[in-house]
Automatic annotation (TrEMBL):
One Gene Ontology biological process: meristem maintenance
Protein name per its UniProtKB record: Aminotransferase-like plant mobile domain-containing protein
Protein origin, superkingdom: Eukaryota
Taxonomic lineage from the root: Eukaryota, Viridiplantae, Streptophyta, Embryophyta, Tracheophyta
Organism: Linum tenue
Cross-referenced PANTHER family: PROTEIN MAIN-LIKE 2, PROTEIN MAINTENANCE OF MERISTEMS-LIKE
Length: 222
């Protein structure tokens, strides 16, 4: 929702988002310092606050151009190691993750390459069973199928099924032949659209996104 043209802010753990960007996209990394082995990984990045105004707008244009010109070689696909999925087995869990009263769907099938595997077309995205907001409450209550605690506690039944040997990628950005065709119909190939003077086009709503769009519209307008 934060990437939509009408959005003016973003919420959530932005430190986690920034750290993820630095890990996977070397072009945007700030300087890094050595840390103790038990120190938080994200604290090794030395970030600087930039001024606003014209300089900020010029940086924005420059960053967009850098993103458009990136290739698979400019991505660090497995910054946490070649066998992250094997060494950290829980990262292959697929289902709902809960922290306190916040629950989010987690589907590693959408990012096989981050685990060193060839990317395939992922299954239909997970959506909540129901969602509503009581009149006396400012937050939404979301219901997921099944018990979240039971899903997390029964890991073997909710793992991403990958043929470890046959699905290993030969090069970091490898994907099935039909994956990129599938991806282009669900995302913008470029941030700066040369055919519309920089105005982004609306991407089509596809069958496997209908439920998601309904929920987002509900959250935005109810």
């Amino acid at each position: 929702m934060a990437t939509r043209v009408g959005s003016k802010s973003i919420c959530g753990c932005l430190t986690l988002l920034q750290a993820w960007i630095y890990e996977y996209f070397p072009l945007f990394r700030p300087s890094q310092i050595l840390q103790a082995p038990d120190a938080p990984r994200a604290s090794s990045w030395v970030c600087h606050r930039f001024a606003g105004g014209d300089d900020a707008r010029q940086r924005l244009v420059r960053y967009r151009k850098m993103l458009d010109e990136m290739s698979g070689e400019d991505v660090s696909w497995t910054p946490y190691g070649r066998d992250a999925g094997t060494e950290v087995l829980r990262s292959l869990y697929t289902g709902v993750i809960r922290f306190a009263d916040v629950a989010e769907g987690y589907d590693p099938a959408r990012c096989h390459r981050q685990f060193g595997y060839r990317q395939t077309i992922p299954p239909t995205m997970m959506v909540p069973k129901d969602v509503y907001r009581p009149a006396s409450c400012s937050t939404y209550i979301v219901f997921w199928e099944g018990s979240m605690d039971q899903l997390w506690g029964n890991l073997p039944s909710h793992f991403l099924h990958i043929a470890i040997d046959s699905d290993l990628c030969e090069y970091p950005s490898e994907a099935d032949e039909d994956y990129m065709d599938w991806y282009r119909t669900r995302s913008h190939p470029r941030i700066i659209n040369p055919d519309s003077g920089g105005v982004s086009l609306q991407r089509p709503v596809l069958v496997d996104e209908v439920s998601y769009v309904i929920i987002v519209q509900f959250l935005m307008y109810c």
